[in-house]
Amino acid sequence: MNDPDDLPEPRPMPESLRNRLWAEIEPQLETRASGSRSRMLRAPSAVAASVVALAVGLAIVLPQFRDRGQDNVTGAGSPGAGQPVNPGDLHLVRECVQAGQDVPDPASWRPGVRFDLDAENGFLVIRSDEYAAVCVLKNGKATRIEGGVDTRRHVYGDLTAARPFDYLSSWNWGSPVAGSVHFGIVTSEVTAVSLVGPDNSVTPAVVRDGTFAAKTKFAESSGQPTTNHIRATLKDGQVIEGPFR
Q1: What is the DSSP letter of 53?
Q2: What is the Cα–Cα distance from 138 to 141, expressed in whole angstroms?
Q3: Cα–Cα distance, 224 to 242 (Å, whole number)
Q4: How far apart are the first and last CA of the chain?
Q5: Model confidence at 71, in pLDDT bands (50, 70, 90)?
Q6: What element of type H or E holds 206?
Q7: Is 100 exposed, middle or buried (0-12, 13-18, 19+ CB in 10 A)?
Q8: For residue 163, is pLDDT > 60?
Q9: How far is CA 157 from CA 15, 43, 131, 172, 175, in A?
Q10: Contact assessment for residue 124 and residue 138, using Cβ atoms and an 8 Å cutoff
Q11: Mean pLDDT to the nearest integer, 99-118
Q12: If you ran DSSP here, which 8-state letter would residue 6 be given?
C-alpha cells in the first residue's frame, strides 16, 4: 500500500463533473432499489468507491494537463509572466542572443516587453533572472543588443524595496530630439510604471515580466543627472517615485 504521505491532497470535484456522475448513477440506484436489501447496501458503497477513485485520478491528471498548457502559453522559464508570449518573440530571443557578444548563460533568456516604432523599426527587451538588455529589431529581425549585458550594470540584483526600478537604455531620434523610447527593469512587486517628464507630464509605460518601455518627447541625456522621473505602483498600492537614472 502506498504511503499516505505520497497521496495527492484532496481537491474539490468540479460541480459539472459531480452532476454528470450523479445523473449516470441515480438511474442505477433506482433500478437496484427493487432488489434485495443487501444489493441496495452494496450499490452505494461501490458507487462511492468508484467516485473516490475517479476523483483521485482527476486530481493527479488534471494538474499535469493544466501545467503543460501553461508552459505552451507563457513560455518555459518565465515565472510570473502572466501574459501570453508571441511564439515569434521566442524565436527573436534566440536571434538577439546570437547577435549579442559575450551574452551570459544564453539559454536562460526570455522575452520581455516589445515596442514597435513602425513597420520597420522596433525593440524587444530580453531578460534572464539576473540581466536585461534591449534588442534592436529591423524588419522583424534582431540586429544587435544594447544595455545591461555589455556593461553588467542595471541588473535585477541591484533593485531594492526603496528603489524597485532602474534605467536600462534609451533610444533617441531626431536633431533636435523629436522623441525617445525609454527602457527599464522593475521587481516582480511592480505592477505599473509611468515616466514623469520635466514638464510634469505623465506617460504610462508598458510593463511585462520585470521590463518596461515608454515613448516620450523627452530624451534621457547622458550629459545630465536625469531628465525623466519614474513613478512605480506596487501590488499593495504603494507608489514609489525617483529619478530614472
Answers
A1: H
A2: 5
A3: 15
A4: 62
A5: very low
A6: strand 206-208
A7: buried
A8: yes
A9: 45, 62, 9, 27, 36
A10: no
A11: 89
A12: G
What amino acid is encoded at 91 in this protein?
A: H
Which amino acid is residue 10, in one-letter code? P
**Which backbone phi and psi does 85 adopt, to 5 degrees?**
-110, 130
Give percent of the chain above pLDDT 90.
Answer: 42
3-state helix, strand, coil in the chain (%, to 5): 30, 30, 40
DSSP character for 209? T
DSSP string of 115-181, one letter each residue: EESSSSEEEEEEE-SS-EEEEEEETTEEEEEESSTTT--S-GGG--SS--EEEEEEEEETTTT-EEE
Of 4-18, 50-64, 127-141, 221-235, least confident by mean pLDDT is 50-64
Asked whether 113 and 107 are in contact (CB, 8 A), the reply is no
8 A C-beta contact, residue 170 and residue 120: no
Dig out the grid coordinates for 203 from the structure.
506617460
